[in-house]
Amino acid sequence: MNPFSFPYLSRVNAVMAIVGGVGLFVVPDLLLRILDVPAAFDGSFYGRAYATGLLNIGVISWATRDVVDVRVIRGVTAANAVQDALIVGILLHAVLTGQANGWTWGLVVAFGYQVVSNAVAYARSGR
After folding, report:
1. Are 12 and 113 in contact (CB under 8 A)?
2. What's the distance, Cα to Cα, between the start and end of the chain in Å?
3. 98 phi and psi, to 5 degrees?
4. Alpha carbon of 29 to those of 44, 61, 95, 98, 121: distances in Å?
């Protein structure tokens, strides 16, 4: 399957967002400890708040995985690209300022792939 096709990309987006969202919502302190981020009320609170956004985009990605309407495809891929680019920026800042450990680089790569994939899918959807 083409990794830049909308059906494939929607499934990948959905799985990453739902797994991450559930994890951050249910056990934010554990995930923050794995990334070596100090646990605090703020971290748990903001982790759970962010989880709702991940779950939201995950459900939207899954629900639209088989649509062919270019407007829907462009809207979903643009939303995913923006959210993933923001995640990459936040994670890079955390690693470069010493607020998170090397495990975070794996997330930077995963979400960076998502940014590029969504941008390519967006560009190709207009053809």
Report:
1. no
2. 19
3. 80, 15
4. 6, 26, 18, 18, 34
For residue 6, pLDDT beyond 90 = no
Residue with tokens 């990605």, as numbered in its chain: 61
Residue 112 to residues 67, 109, 120: CA-CA distances in angstroms?
24, 5, 12
77 vs 14: CA distance, rounded Å: 12
Q: From the CB of residue 118, how many other CB atoms can be counted at a distance below 10 Å? A: 27
Closest to 13 (Cα-Cα) out of 110, 98, 95, 122: 110
> pLDDT tens, 94-113?
888 888 888 889 889 988 99
pTM over cut 0.90? no
Q: Where are the alpha helices (DSSP H) in the chain?
A: 6-26, 28-34, 41-63, 70-96, 103-125
- How many Cβ atoms sit within 10 Å of the Cβ of residue 67? 14
